[in-house]
Amino acid sequence: MLDYRIKTFLELCRLKNYTKTAHSLHITQPAVTQHIQYLEREYGMNLFDHEARELTLTPKGQLFYWSALTMEANSRKIHELMKQPVAAARYFRFGATLSIGEYLMPPILTAYLKEYPQNRLSMLVENTETLLKKLDEGEIDFAVVEGRFDKDAYSHVLLANEGFIAVCSGNFPIRENLLMDDITGYPLIIREKGSGTRWILEDILAEHNLSIGQFEQLNEMGNFAVIKHLVREGLGLTFAYESVVGKEIREGTLKKVDIQNFRAAREFNFVYLKDSIFEKEYLEFYRYCMQKKEGSSDYENLS
Predict the structure, then answer these.
(1) What is residue 295's predicted lDDT score, i.e. its pLDDT?
(2) In the list 29, 60, 97, 218, which could disulfide-bond 22, CB 3.0-4.6 Å?
(3) Distance of alpha carbon 44 from alpha carbon 34, whole angstroms
(4) How high is the mean pLDDT of the chain?
(5) Which residue ranges form the domains of the chain, and what is each CATH number?
């Protein structure tokens, strides 16, 4: 069971207000203060900068925050395990970004559930930003994400390194051997803010002193299947992982846009909270994913 004073600390970190924290936890404001003071005495450090105008964690308080998140997640996981009808069964709640959840995970999950039918899986598909927030709040055990994240804040292992390319419809009127500066003269269809593929594109454009706002026309869609449909219909171009559009390229409904001196690849990372007592189980699942990914023909060109 998680210490109630640590629960108070985490709620105060989330709400950043003593009164709101007291109301949320159904305790008095002095009780909130007492809980924080107890923790500061117990660990011999100030958790919050009391001289700041806004409630701000000290550097040591930030370290304690990440440790407390892991303790909360561990406590929640233990409660879930105790409720399982079969003692040997495992239950993994995890998240995946859209490209990973739609294209990488299905054959892996199929193989896993056939091999371990007693186990339970729950996969949430969201953008990277949302998944990391849910990981922090203990709503998922781990996440498989694309795009950037604070690698110092989490434990993580590389799952794949995937090529990132521009594509348009097979008959889209686009010049060959384009320069990066030329690409903004065409309509762009891209994921919403916060998505891994959008972050990656923004990083790539910034390396060439460009931005998404410079494109002739910009349309944002929250579903990549919709993006592929619009691109196939000749309404613009998009950027995607090679394996995600590999089938369409082979069929000729999409084609790779040839951009001079453009080579891009990005990481798919398996991410979980630091110092989790369930790290061994998470890494076993990670190794299973690696094994099935490397032997799967359903997700070609992923390496």
Answers:
(1) 60
(2) 29
(3) 15
(4) 87
(5) 4-70 (1.10.10.10), 83-155+275-295 (3.40.190.10), 161-266 (3.40.190.10)
